[in-house]
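Listing 4. Sequential folding, example run.
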Amino acid sequence: MRDLTSESQIEVLSAADGVRRRHWSDADKIRIVEESFSGHRQVSATARLHGISRSLLTVWRRQYRNGELSGAGSPAFIPLTGSAEPPAMASPVPVPPNPEARVEIALRNGRQLAVPANVDPVALARLLSVVDGR
């Protein structure tokens, strides 16, 4: 007859055995975040496509908007076009006495633009139309 004593089997798991957390470079994060902003794709669909959680992608999007990801707020070259005729503008704003005064403009696409307070209004209007994407 067979002995029916049970022998328990123990399996020891260590961190070296398993897959560690993935490390995403800032360039990868920026690429995924910009993909989530393009088109009508939902955040959850983009997160699922790349195998990350929706909450992680939401955190990356906030970091991108705040300029916390390297490369997100760094200067870049963008195509700039200008028209021969400037748009009709109201009377120019008087120049403040401080030549180092700056104006910060928050755009609808989440970007922020800092310009000198004595910037030419026509040039600013052209720049805003390109940077804001309108």
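-- end of first protein; second protein begins --
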Amino acid sequence: MTLLDGIRRNRFLVIGRAGMDIYPHPPGTKTEEATEFRSGLGGSAANTAAGICRFGGQADLVTSVSDDSIGRYCLNGLDQYGVGRAYVKSVGGEYRNSLAIYETRIEDHQTVIYRNGAADFQMTKDDVERIDYSAYGALITAGTVFAAEPSRSAAFHAFDLARAAGLPIIFDVDYRPYSWPSAEIAADVLSHAGAVSDMIVGNDEEFGFMAGDIDKGLTKARELAGSSASVVIYKMGEKGAITFADGKEQQTGIYKVDALKPTGAGDSFMAGLLSSIAAGHDLTAAVLRGSACAAIVVGKPGCAPALPDNAELTAFLASHPGPTHV
């Protein structure tokens, strides 16, 4: 099926990590000065899946979690948002779920990520072979899933199985240097993942990284749009985004808000983008709605807890003056 037809089925297979987020309370508090913390479901793939479910779509997560209280916290979080976890495996031993401690503040913002012995990297080829790919419209994954073995080989195997079943592949570059053994390996692997994907979403730095030079990121995005991918979305922060599709380039702006934090925007953007396409919006409108979702999330504490639903997005769009002109 085509990329857009697959997205319109509104049932997604999402491969990647679920984690636990912890953030000081109240907003503005530095971690080292905090006496109170709040928690929420985290991990880019889990956040994207939760966002899709918030909009009324269906999303099943494929990952591994630690067989301990933190892993069970993540499972409970997936249940809370309605994310399917038939393909979530618990692993014992010394493997642990990822833990993100981030501040709800812009100035001198600090995020600390714990990824030692990450449980999600224990996803195997056997795990992805258990999946009924015909039940889904599209496969979504983010770059972190490729950062270590056996997860890397399992994810590429899932790509092959999805493509054999006719599913389009949606790839969020999501480069996190701390997860990779080297920048050279990351550039090679992420470029390979991009070359076999139907939709690629990333920011200017991530495309530049894949190209080997930050100044060549836009050229890299154009190359991918002209060869393998049907849709490429090149995000530029405050400068908006450029969408490459059908041989055309469309630049869009952002919805300016008073941000409380810089985290969570990318996952919310992806969820809003795909859910909007599934709801019948054209690609440009869907990108703008994804940008509005990103603006909503950075204006609230938490990542998954800040994800909007249809009613909140509608209210935001009705009250906001509109996106910046580019």
